[in-house]
Write a sequence for this structure.
């Protein structure tokens, strides 16, 4: 059921101080000022330790349920993921104040990057349903992956700590990871009633049409129609992998012969290796965790009720 957001609904904001490269104190002041100007109550819950993010998100949902409020995530895609995990199925509306590097989720749904403009969306728009992906009941808003991509993300975090957050740093970290090489996964994949055995260095499952469009995949349209997109790389050498990285940077990855891609609503996955481990490392919206095998990727049967502009995002409207 669509939650109705009263004009006086309080905002319960989970604010990740570690996300993005902006001034956290300035962003906090802008949130509080906008709420005061609109006569809206606002409670900021600061994330001082990322390990406590999940518990803080659940606390925010409980407060919102008791007060008839909106749960808001202020941070990057990882912060949005953790808060969405707590909000999904709670009956609460979900708001976003993007503070990350790429902000694919907010950009897809037309939410401005600037705090002042994003606050106006939160204060004056209504909640609309948006699609959520699940892997073993874990939420992903943008993508989920295993193999090479989680390793790339872990290496990228190390580069960020040393060189700061930027798209150039992210690209450099990815390049360094690819040069070291990666062992291929052997997987049994169940999709559309058939089982396939594949070898691949990485499986990437997308739930974000904007990201898929920028990489050059037609499956972006499938996401708009309520499906997920799977992308697998054939086993290739390091030079070929670097070439694929460049194709992705220029939006031409979907045309490469070394790439397999298809859309689905449910995909089952298990290891094809004898005596395989019982767990596998999975990245969901940039956050890496261990999940038990087998895995199941699917579209959530219920949407996330996101406060967003009613018109499509300019980046998507022009696509």
């Amino acid at each position: 059921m669509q939650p109705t957001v009263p004009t006086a609904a309080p905002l319960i904001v989970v604010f990740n101080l570690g996300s993005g490269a902006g001034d956290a104190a300035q962003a906090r002041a802008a949130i509080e000022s906008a709420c005061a100007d609109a006569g809206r109550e606002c409670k900021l819950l600061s994330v001082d330790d990322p390990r406590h993010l999940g518990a803080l998100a659940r606390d925010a949902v409980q407060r919102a349920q008791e007060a008839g409020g909106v749960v808001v995530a202020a941070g990057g895609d990882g912060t949005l993921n953790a808060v969405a995990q707590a909000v999904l199925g709670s009956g609460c509306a979900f708001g976003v104040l993007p503070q990350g590097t790429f902000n694919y989720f907010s950009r897809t749904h037309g939410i401005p990057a600037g705090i002042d403009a994003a606050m106006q969306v939160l204060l004056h728009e209504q909640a609309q349903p948006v699609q959520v992906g699940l892997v073993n009941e874990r939420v992903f808003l943008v993508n989920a992956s295993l193999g090479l991509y989680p390793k790339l993300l872990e290496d990228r975090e190390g580069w960020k700590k040393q060189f700061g957050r930027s798209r150039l740093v992210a690209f450099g970290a990815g390049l360094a990871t690819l040069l070291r090489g990666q062992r291929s996964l052997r997987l049994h994949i169940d999709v559309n009633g058939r089982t396939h055995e594949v070898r691949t260095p990485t499986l990437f499952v997308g739930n974000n049409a904007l990201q898929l469009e920028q990489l050059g995949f037609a499956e972006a349209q499938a996401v708009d129609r309520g499906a997920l997109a799977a992308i697998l790389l054939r086993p290739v050498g390091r030079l070929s992998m670097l070439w694929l990285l460049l194709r992705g940077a220029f939006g031409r990855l979907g045309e490469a012969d070394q790439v397999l891609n298809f859309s689905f609503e449910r995909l089952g996955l298990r290891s094809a290796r004898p005596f395989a481990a019982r767990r596998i490392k999975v990245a969901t919206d940039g956050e890496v965790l261990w999940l038990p095998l087998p895995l199941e990727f699917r579209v959530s049967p219920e949407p996330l009720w996101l406060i967003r502009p009613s018109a499509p995002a300019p980046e998507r409207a022009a696509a």
Q: What stands out?
A: The chain has a mean pLDDT of 85. Residues 148-163 form the longest helix (16 residues).
